[in-house]
Request: fold
Amino acid sequence: MSQNRRSFLVALGAGAAALAAGGHTAAAERPPVERKKIKRVGIQLYTLRRQAAADLPGTLAALAKIGYKEIELAGYYDHSAADVRDLLKKNGLTAPSAHIPIEQIESAPDKTFADAKTIGQQWITVPSLPRGLQDTADGWKRVAAQFNAAGKQSKAAGFRFAFHNHNDIVRKTGDVLPIEILMKETDPALVSYEMDIFWAVNGGADPLALLQRYPGRFKMLHVKDGKGPTYDTQTDVGQGSIDFKTIFARAKGIEHYFVESDTAADPLAFAAASYRYLANLDF
Reply:
């Protein structure tokens, strides 16, 4: 046997002995890559608005059977807050957030907050911009002031306040980029954001760049996919062109993930396919 081969076998044997004795090679010392999964997949009920309007109990039961754990409400579909609370509980669901127009918060705060408390919400989330034109920096500052005021009201009532984007806040109006004004003028202690990933892309923004530019401001995500940037390309989550795995891996501080589609022809089939994708995705 050559000296080189003898030396190699001796080294190999020593390494095996060291492992057997509890030693570690350099490869063994490298920590495993930590992978995460979404623990509680949610869905925005607007996705199944027609089904919910016709049969809210059956719709919630079907979503729970698919595996969803969280519902983001968009109205109560002619049910009382107590009815909604009981239906959620019956199906093992929670509703940590609801989309509530800012005009409702401003005009009927007592009922709005009382209903939210009954249901067990944590978040009061404004789904779209207040009525009126926001085509100047001053106009957007007025919107920010509205959000600060609503956020202060929400906090005093025991809730957190967020705003859900469409494409308008990431598109320039003249020289104004609305999201920059909103982020600068709103108080982080009062106002958070729910990023609708598809609408951000539709508006020409990069979700990863937004997360990096405004760390800690986005607390929830709308997980909406499309085969292209246009509205009519929306598809099952995981079947489009958006790289959710990378977005989720780099996003910090996200508390809730809500699947949504504005256009699904068969919303329950969409919900089932999208849940399967997200429940099995690690990042």
User: Anything to note?
Assistant: The mean pLDDT is 90. The first strand starts at residue 41 and ends at 44. The beta strands are 41-44, 70-73, 94-99, 123-126, 160-164, 191-196, 218-223, 225-226, 234-235, 256-259.
